[in-house]
Amino acid sequence: MAGFNKVVHSYEDAMAGLQDGMTVIAGGFGLCGIPEGLIAQIKKMQTKDLTVVSNNCGVDGFGLGILLEDRQIKKMVASYVGENALFEKQLLSGELEVELTPQGTLAEKMRAGGAGIPAFFTATGYGTPVAEGKETREINGRHYVLEPAITGDFSIVRAWKADRYGNLVFRHTSMNFNPMAATAGKITVAEVEEIVEPGELEPSQIHTPGIYVQRVIKGSFEKRIERRMVRQG
Amino acid sequence: MALSREQVAMRVAQELQDGYYVNLGIGIPTLVANYVPAGIEVMLQSENGLLGMGPYPTEDEIDADMINAGKETVTAIKGAAIFSSAESFAMIRGGHVDLTVLGAFEVDQNGNIASWMIPGKLVKGMGGAMDLVAGAQNIVVTMTHADKYGNSKLLTDCTLPLTGVGCVKKIVTDLAVLEVRNGAFHLLERAPGISVEEIQQKTAGKLVVEGDIPEMVFS
Fold first, then answer.
1. Of the partner residues A124, A172, A227, the one whose CB lies closest to the CB of residue B66
2. Which domains occur in chain B, in start order?
3. Which of A115, A182, B58, B89 lies at a C-alpha separation of 20 to 30 Å from B160?
4. Do A107 and B88 touch (CB under 8 A)?
5. Parallel/antiparallel/unpaired status of strands B76-82 and B113-114
């Protein structure tokens, strides 16, 4: 059954159609909640000149950081990119373009993109370098910046559970940017820990309804921890 | 004597009120969580999507899917809520967070803050700082009063690229507590043993000193 059966069984099928120059939106915060296998597949495909939209760009050798190794990313749209020596090197040499975007504005740009809202006004960034060249407006005595929405040719997200309809549930704070990213891609691919039978997910507890998701693949995840902090028990 | 980092955090903690939703930035602000006054309850918001942040996990509790905005492993308290980044910044931008505490390179007498970018040095990004300063009802900045060369960080006008305009209400430094209003720094308290003259000398922006300025009290 095709139709509503969105489950694919290979990473090749999951990322089929990705081409040079496309925009890819990726969920995740740091290394938490990233679609590890889909990123690895983009590396394998050697797709070039990508614009990647994600809160961060991984670390050296893991997460989106691996796409820097063969210079697959032309432009990065992110709120914070401080964890990555290769990123720094390519930025300073001019090989990589970066558009730093406030974290909340980035989340809202994805949300708006998925919700059919072309742009929105926000007070965030008014009077700062972020507002340079953008339309501003005073509304009820406060100044706002017009921020355009973001959509992607592909969105890649990581979820906990999915069913074949593409309904998604996220686990703990690995949710982060994933629900908005899922709405903003022409083709949204969800890499998940577990695929369950329809009906097993409680309808009112679904985080991302399947209408936003085109492909689902079961992955296996390393789930690397960026800063392991422990208290004595 | 100038306050230690812990003492700055202890003084900031006195700004907390029962029932507050609070976002704490990285560095000294994080320490504030250790000094919540007895008998009050506050809820910590972490902008990656957690309301009700708890302490670091024990070795057994560590979960890669449970982190804070500093990308550190963390726990959630009973009664916590977890949500998306868009929801998290709706809370912040919508003014639902009662207090934000964050560090800065510079603040000025009009409440402008510079905390994310030093021209000539590599820029790593603003993360959520611009959203936080634009959205919180109340912003407390923690910083040293002057840099290591003695140059004031409390200025007439910020010299570095801004994080936000007209948003800082209160500053707790290693020397003083100050309020920002009507285009001036108003001195409220001084660190034990620090004179008004020293604070005056290390404040480049307009400083208003009215009456006797009490020393900070630590219980």
1. A172
2. 5-208 (3.40.1080.10)
3. B89
4. yes
5. unpaired
